[in-house]
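Example 3.2
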Amino acid sequence: MQPRNMSMSGVVDLAAVKAAGEAAQKAQEAREAAARAGDQGGLPGAAEGLVFDASEATFETDILQRSAQVPVVIDFWAEWCGPCKQLGPVLEKLAYDYAGRFVLAKIDVDSNQAIAQQFGIQGIPAVMAVVAGQLVPLFQGALNESQVRQYLDQLIQVAEQQFGIVGTAAPAGAEDERAEAPPVPQSPEDIALAAAHDALDKGDLGGAIQAYRNVLAQSPANAEAKVGLAQAELLKRVQESDPAKIREAAASAPDDVEAQIAAADLDMVGGHVEDALGRLVEAVRRTFGEDRDKARLHLLELFEVLGADDPRVVQARGALARVLF
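Structure, written as tokens:
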């Protein structure tokens, strides 16, 4: 799951397509208004800190108005989403590491469906940004820390060069936000999971796979380790693949289970979850015997990547049952 270069062709105004110059002017006016508001005690209801929850009720203040002063990165997530729970801590860590070059707004898609529809969210986790009132699509899926940093660096460059927005210094006391809560003692299992997550963030897929397997050897029912292992193995499978050849092989041989499995893996890492699951359900429907079993088992592996509670998994399980029985 390698980051794609972010181009300015992806920057779209939330209301309508406008010139960057006009947006920059609006940003400057908004910054001046925000400065005046700050002299008068700040914007009512505005979120504070580098990481905060946003909603439909606070969208105007917390995201649109704030984007005139600092890039606002939006993490679209849900409680049932396993990959969201992996990506969320990475984004929060980076919000503190970047010390005010951007702020992170977290939006629960289940509680804020109108916003999710407005942004065209089709799968989560999904990460976008707003700069000077304009939408900058970033990425979808649970990337590791180094990959996310590449997107953030490009976002900050766009904000500075196109809109003159350089972010702000970390709010007073923000560097201490994570230290306010007393530390929670970690169990050996927590430490092992942390090591596995760290290896995955660093791109050490072999190390991450082994670390997750170590956790599961001691705790076979650990759901977090199961999801992490499935994701690491998926990334490992596609790391050195040739996407063009895989797509061509899958298109030319719809009954070739190996080709469909490889294409499904590409679909997954590209964020096209429904396509990946649908492709393998179709492979199960079209094949028999050993090939059918191979497609079915790989589909179950992809279910592990998403987590059992993901509604796309629930839907695909139903489709699988219909073609099997």
